[in-house]
Amino acid sequence: MAEEQNGSQVQAADTGPAGPRLWERDHEMRSIEHAVDKLCREYAAGGLKIGELLLFSGMPGIGKTTMLEQARRIAGAREGSTTLFARGSERERKEPFRVLRQLLMPVLGGLDEAERKEVFGSWYNIVAPAIGLASPSGEIERIDPQGIHDGLDFVITQLAPRRAPLVVIVDDLHAVDQESLSWLASFAVRARELPVLLVFAFRHEFEEEALPFARQIKDRAAYKHELVQLNPVSVAAIVHDEFAEADDAFCRQVWAVTAGTPFDTVALVREVREQNLEPIEENSPRLRDLAAAARGQGRDYWLEKLGVTVIRFAWAAALLGTEIKEEVAAAICGQTATQAAESVRVLRRMRVLTSQPDGRLEFVHPLIATSIYQSIPPSTRTGMHGQAATVIENAGGSLLAASRHLLETHPGEGDDAMVRKLRRAAAENLAIGAPGAARRCLERAMNEPPDVDDQAEVLYELACASLLTDPEATANQLRRAIDMEPGLSPDLRVEAVLRLSEVVAHSGDLGGAAALCQDESDHTPEGPGRFRLLVAQLLYTALQRDEEDGPGRAERVRRLAAEVDPDSEAAQPVRVLHAWDLTLQGGGTTEALRAAESALVEGRLPDSLRWTNTTWNFELPALLGLCFAYNDELARAEKLFSSAILDFEIAGWSGAHRGFAYFLMGYARLRRGFLPEAEDFLRRGLRIADRMGTDLPLTWNLAGVMIETLLARGRDQEAWDTAVKYRFQPPYHETALVLPDAATTYGKLLIARGRHQEAAAVLAKVGERLERRGWHSGVHAPWAGHLAVALAEQDLPAARRTAEEAVERARTSGVPSAIGTALRLAAQVRQGAHAVRLLQDAVGWLGRSPASYEHAHALVDLGAALVQVGRSLEAEEHLYQGLELAKHCGADGLEVRARELLATAGLQPSRSAVPAKDTLNPAEQEVARLAARSLPPQRIAEELRLPLGIVKQRLAAVHRKLGTGPDGLADALGLPADDPGQVD
């Protein structure tokens, strides 16, 4: 619960206004007071990054709960502060996000609409269902747990400053549900950046799967207190508080039998009072039996204390855990409202239950709750759990809350209703990002067991519950479901095979994934299912590093694209594959772009190809975006890739999916020449990939583009270190195609290291491999140009022939950036006027492309070549333009080189800034003026009688150079705004 900015005091039951009296806890109390004082003082002084963590640990009954009650009291007394409290429960450990709900619901549920939008941002549909603020969205089948973490991080980062200073207190951390604990562990690190004090208490009884999180929390703590037993003097003081006449020998025996444990000491003293035992030495022998009864607190103990009626209510309360509603507990144990009220009165008088301000009941101490729960006879406990599930559902509760009770019932009766509930509960758990809880529900459903006709389907659902978190378990269960008799329905069988192939492919075995789809398609009747399998087989084959018959597969795709019904949903996936083949073959950018555009619907991804649509998964839209990127339509590619990031965030897919989206956006930014932004996206992706393991295709893709980016920025050593860290070297990934080509990237890295002979060998093999596949794209793998550079020292004639062939192939493709880059590399194996002519041609082509870094590189190279032939005055303008563009790109190494060339030529390495509009060439200015009048590209093309593609290329250069979108063009050009009616 939360005490928000009200200065209220949280007290233990039956204590004075300052809280319960404590013994031998002065050091711990000073620690709490110091931590709260520091938080409030530094926040008042304007501090925001002041988060600290305070830990209390020790054996059961040692006083941890009392210390946290004191922390709540001290923090709650501070004006303006906010205190959030939650408690773990061994009986509720299987209810996902239970502790986070208890912790955050009071404060987040009280936000008004405007503040809610600010605090949640775009994360509401992800976070709100997990913490109980909303029902799971029907649009999201499953959420990656990392997505929940990311969303919670955002929410708490927005919330903390609004409710600061914020004190977050969690008792019994060892009994916190896994979903809440994993986030608390990560938040313990992030809290350093927020005005937050964390106060946690725990026993050293963490389950094995929770140990890593426990260690992370312990390592983060600024203050750690291991509570110890009380000494005899303190125990005597506790006894004398209750019995002023108690003699010293009696007090000493109380200490001996309780070992100085505060909870046991207080419980024993209470037993002495209830037994009317005189506190004198003669009665000391009876203390051991009383202590054993009080400590054990078994069924007989509680039955004697409470009676038959009251104990049943207490049992029902123990089943409910930390948040007990009187009417729900009454329904579970079958008591009327009057009987329940009397039971509560007795339990409060006996110091078993206490009431909270919101009207809910709570056990006075967690050990009492555990004791009462354990006193329930096993058969009775099982029946009451089943009743609890029914009552919670009937009271309007969700299956998420009821499912933990269903898990405690005995399987083996084949109850179809039970199986249906468990399957629905599993679906809800997946929808809030709790696959572990979903698996528990489905495993329990399998043990029921389901009807024989449903078993394969339940097993399939169990496999899907692990899809985002445990690929190995997913694969094993999918294989079992596929092989089971009676088996899956035909449609679900196809779905299971496709899911299995997806898991196999994402693990790196693309050949195995393709074979699975091929084998299943051979036994599947004609129809949509068989077609999906066929397309998946073609996709996974195309994405393999090596392919036996690349041209043959491409021809099959071409025929399929021609034969498929153009109005069917099946048309778009085939068109994507056809566009990819045309792009990689490098036959002509116009045809490749036409095929790519035909896969869109009104310029957008069709529903079947959306990033989170499980019909085709994310590979096909990714290939479509790469088709645009490889053909210099980078704005369209970036639009697709940014929608991937957004779609994955909305769906809560924050693992490999979002890492892959960061790779795509990083690559597009690299191609645009926005190098710092590319590096930022790639580092985010690598952080995700590092969490997932090593040698995955995702890691290789990210590492390859990161190496390219670092080389472009002039950080050659860091690029090499990245290659070493991620083992980015031959034999590369065994089966997966790395984008862009991994071996070409490695060859470029070797050239940067001065190892030209090794680079030549590597790049020559690339050429042989890609020749066999019929792939000649100079964007995917510009191996030939770099091979020419690597050969120049040992065989200049061969280097020149290779460079000329690279230029010819690039011209065949028609991609401006590919032509410009090939020309620039060809100039490196030429000298004098020939090199100048090649570089002038390269600058012209790259000026028409969106590839800013390559354009800057060509400008600087041209300036250097002009200096070498004695044309320094001409070189000046090119070097200045290259310098400015390199600075704009973040190409630090290229910028330094341009300055050095200017200085060597006797020119000033800097000059007054040129207005951005003056960097446009005449052709670009012409297009820019028309675009500033809000004319669309098609109208501009008609007016200037130019191909639409040329207009778009010039517009891309305009936007890049002016640093503005269409709306800001008029202002950037210094033109007056058009009258509303000027453009129809």
UniProtKB/TrEMBL annotation:
Gene3D superfamilies: P-loop containing nucleotide triphosphate hydrolases (3.40.50.300), Tetratricopeptide repeat domain (1.25.40.10), Winged helix-like DNA-binding domain superfamily/Winged helix DNA-binding domain (1.10.10.10). Residues 1-22 are annotated as: Disordered. InterPro entries: AAA_16, P-loop_NTPase, Sig_transdc_resp-reg_C-effctor, TPR-like_helical_dom_sf, WH-like_DNA-bd_sf. Pfam families: AAA_16. Residues 1-12 have a biased composition (Polar residues). Residues 24-199 form the Orc1-like AAA ATPase domain. It comes from the Bacteria. Keywords: ATP-binding, Nucleotide-binding. This is AAA family ATPase. It comes from Kitasatospora saccharophila. The lineage of its organism: Bacteria, Bacillati, Actinomycetota, Actinomycetes, Kitasatosporales.
